[in-house]
């Protein structure tokens, strides 16, 4: 119970909040200072400045599927609008557009997701074999991915696909270097 004689004399005694860290002699700012850099279980993981093969596999496959599905859905939308006929009701037109978008989106998403899966696997394998991390790994992985993706169409298609894959990856790596150098972020 509060002594009624002391209420008017010193209001600070009764309005202060309880501080559980008062007796710890630790500055409050350092108590919750969390690290901002990633934490690694093994020291050799912290030395490498790249994603692991599993993270690469997930990243390239997921990004490939998502971008392919969005691009394919857009293409399917345009195809669905073009396929509509004069006598179609609104419900029939919407159904045609949704069916075309879903079909094209799944098809393109699966195709580009598989390309991302092959690229990530080949790039991780090349990094493990060469034991270096440079631009050549990515270009070789692009060559291999294009050749593997088109291998079922014959050797000529595989060679053309490999060349296109290598050129696309080379252009992407060069573009990334240009953006890093000239775009202030």
TrEMBL record:
Subcellular location: Membrane
Main location: membrane
CC per GO annotation: TIM23 mitochondrial import inner membrane translocase complex
Topological type in the membrane: Multi-pass membrane protein
GO MF entry, a single one: protein transmembrane transporter activity
Stored InterPro entries: Tim23-like
UniProt KW keywords: Membrane, Transmembrane, Transmembrane helix
Pfam families: Tim17 (PF02466)
Biological process according to GO: protein import into mitochondrial matrix
PANTHER family in the record: SD19278P, TIM23
Name the UniProt record assigns to this protein: Mitochondrial inner membrane translocase subunit Tim17/Tim22/Tim23/peroxisomal protein PMP24
């Amino acid at each position: 119970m509060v002594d009624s004689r002391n209420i008017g004399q010193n209001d600070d005694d009764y309005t202060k909040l309880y501080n559980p860290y008062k007796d710890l002699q630790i500055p409050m700012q350092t108590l919750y200072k969390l690290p901002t850099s990633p934490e690694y279980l093994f020291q050799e993981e912290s030395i490498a400045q790249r994603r692991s093969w599993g993270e690469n596999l997930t990243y390239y496959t997921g990004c490939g599927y998502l971008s392919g599905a969005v691009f394919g859905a857009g293409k399917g939308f345009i195809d669905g609008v073009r396929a509509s006929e004069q006598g179609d009701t609104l419900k029939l037109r919407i159904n045609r557009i949704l069916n075309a978008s879903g079909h094209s989106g799944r098809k393109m998403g699966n195709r580009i997701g598989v390309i991302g899966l092959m690229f990530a696997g080949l790039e991780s394998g090349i990094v493990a074999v060469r034991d270096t991390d440079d631009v050549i790994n990515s270009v070789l992985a692009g060559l291999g991915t294009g050749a593997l993706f088109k291998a079922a169409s014959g050797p000529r298609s595989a060679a053309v696909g490999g060349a296109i894959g290598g050129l696309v990856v080379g252009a992407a790596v060069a573009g990334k270097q240009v953006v890093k150098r000239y775009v202030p972020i």
